[in-house]
Amino acid sequence: MTDLPISAELISEQNDRAHEALEEDYAALSRKLSRRGINIAAVQQQVSDFSVAVPSWGAGRGGTRFAKFPIPGEPTNIHEKLADCAVIHQLTRATPRVSPHFPWDKVADYSALRQEAEAYGLGFDAVNSNTFQDQPGQAKSYATGSLSSTDAATRAQAVEHNIECIEIGQKLGATDLTVWVGDGTNFPGQQDLGRSLDRYLEAAAEIYAELPVDWRMLLEHKMFEPAFYSSVISDWGSSILAAQTLGEKCHCLIDLGHHAPNVNIEQIVARLHRFGKLGGFHFNDSKYGDDDLDSGSINPHQLFLVFNELVEAELHPRKGFNPSYMIDQSHNVTDPIESMMSSADAILTAYAKAVLVDREALHGAQEANDAMLAFQTLRDAYKTDVSPILAASRAENGGAIDMIGTYRASGYRDLKSQERVAVELGSGIV
Ligand code: RM4
Ligand code: MN
Ligand code: MN
Fold first, then answer.
1. Which of 72, 206, 251, 282 fits as disulfide partner to 417, beta carbons 3.0 to 4.6 Å?
2. How many Å apart are CA 38 and CA 310, to the nearest integer?
3. pLDDT for 87
4. Among 255, 292, 329, which residue has the most ligand 1 atoms within 8 Å of its CB, making it the best to mutate?
5. Ligand nearest to the CA of 254
């Protein structure tokens, strides 16, 4: 193992300062939970077993179509991004996998890249293809679509790129291909809404045919952006129909921010699970119609309700239930490492609270049509401060009790700002 970016001594030194308070809080919570018949150690074990992948592209500062404000020391290539992801995992102990995006993360030697990640204790999660942007030297433009383009050669190029992503993913040890296309229109009448879906399905089937046996194809829907009038795979309905058309190995991926405001996403989770098509998540939060705010920063209750459905699903698994969990957000005003640590914490918090739900009481109240009791059962779990469980889990696994405090004390970003080249545009999403 190479040297990990943050010194273990620093972590334990910082933890020592926080230990006494944590022990007190943990003991109080343990007593409170045991009054409810819950064993805190069992919950802590479930929290320790839970993990979420981080997106390689999230390690850079993102931006909007108006501006991007890079920070000194931000990563500009996959090697530097891996180092930053290693910091996140070291301190959270909850993010052992990185989801790469191609061609952004292209390198000459993928087995070397895999080893580089392994040396940090990291693996690779779903590979993401990119046919929503044109790349230098690319023969065909995606300006009017990729998998759904009216031009056969453009569709073929997009298919080819996805197949290359599968090949790269195999070298990296991934087993999922996530496909999100920006295809859509800006004007009524611009394209035939039915035939563009036909073309998409036909091209997607060519990718599907190349999936290795143990691989899955995850289709990500998004209501709008970059197309503002219609998107080819705009919603979970289009997504599940496409997944059912393509076959068994095709599942739907829910990016929380890809819905209209106030949509009942937890119900979508339950629906997709009901039909064995829930493939994974991209976690983030949103306020208006955006898809890039930090997980749990706006609506942590919705995140809890999503996890409530996932815990239900775990108890009643349907065929192939094995969702992949990943953060997908853009960090425009924060240090991306801090944002992803804080997001991992929000995600684990929602999960732990969902684990605490008294399922028997909930199901009983549901059967009896006791709406208030059912709601209060969820509310009791939601109101519980689970942070001592998360902190204890991190500390016992070598992570930091105070993640952001420890990260700041390490001076990591300052050090990187001396070592790394500054780039005008940075490496996050623009
Ligand atoms: C999209 C979508 C995809 C991500 C790109 C960068 O909005 O969420 O998952 O790959 O952004
Ligand atoms: Mn996404
Ligand atoms: Mn998105």
1. 72
2. 19
3. 98
4. 255
5. 2
Residue nearest (by alpha carbon) to ligand 1 atom 1: 180
pLDDT at residue number 319:
81
Any residues with Cβ below 6 Å from ligand 1, and which? 101, 128, 180, 220, 222, 255, 282, 291, 328, 429
What pLDDT digit, counting tens, does each position of 290-306 carry? Answer: 999 999 999 999 999 99
Q: State how far the Cα of 290 lies from the Cα of 329, in Å rounded to an integer.
A: 10
Tell me the CA–centroid distance for residue 159 and ligand 3, in Å.
Answer: 21
Specify the ligand 1 atom closest to the Cα of 130. Answer: 10
Find the 415 Cα to ligand 3 centroid distance in Å: 31
- Three-state secondary-structure class, residue 342: helix
| Cα dihedral value 144, 290, 332, 138, nearest 10 | -10
Under 8 Å between Cβ of 399 and 93 = yes
Question: What's the pLDDT tens digit per position in 66-104?
Answer: 889 999 999 999 999 999 999 999 999 999 999 999 999
Strands 123-124 and 324-327: what pairing? unpaired
**Mean pLDDT, the chain, as a whole number?**
96
Is 201 exposed, middle or buried, given 0-12, 13-18 or 19+ CB atoms closer than 10 A?
A: middle
Nearest CA to ligand 1 atom 3: 180
Cα 329 to middle of ligand 3, angstroms: 7
DSSP for 221-287, please give it: --SSSS-SSEETT-SHHHHHHHHHHH-TTEEEEEEGGGS-TT--HHHHHHHHHHTT-EEEEEE-B-S
Question: In this structure, which residues have their CB less than 5 angstroms from ion ligand 2?
Answer: 255, 282, 328
Strand order in the sheet with 278-283: 127-128, 176-179, 216-220, 250-255, 278-283, 324-327
Question: Which ligand minimizes its atom distance to the CA of 259?
Answer: 3
pLDDT at position 289 is 92
Please give the number of the atom of ligand 1 that sits closest to the Cα of 284. Answer: 8
What percentage of the chain carries pLDDT values higher than 90?
95
Query: Residue 127 in 3-state DSSP?
Result: strand
Which atom of ligand 1 is closest in space to residue 257's alpha carbon? 8
What gap in Å lies between CA 20 and CA 399, rounded to an integer?
16
Q: What pLDDT digit, counting tens, does each position of 92-149 carry?
A: 999 999 999 999 999 999 999 999 999 999 999 999 999 999 999 999 999 999 999 9
Which residue has the CA at smallest separation from atom 2 of ligand 1? 180
Q: How far is CA 108 from CA 34, 158, 161, 344, 376, in A?
A: 54, 21, 16, 31, 55
Helix (H) or strand (E) holding 55: strand 54-55
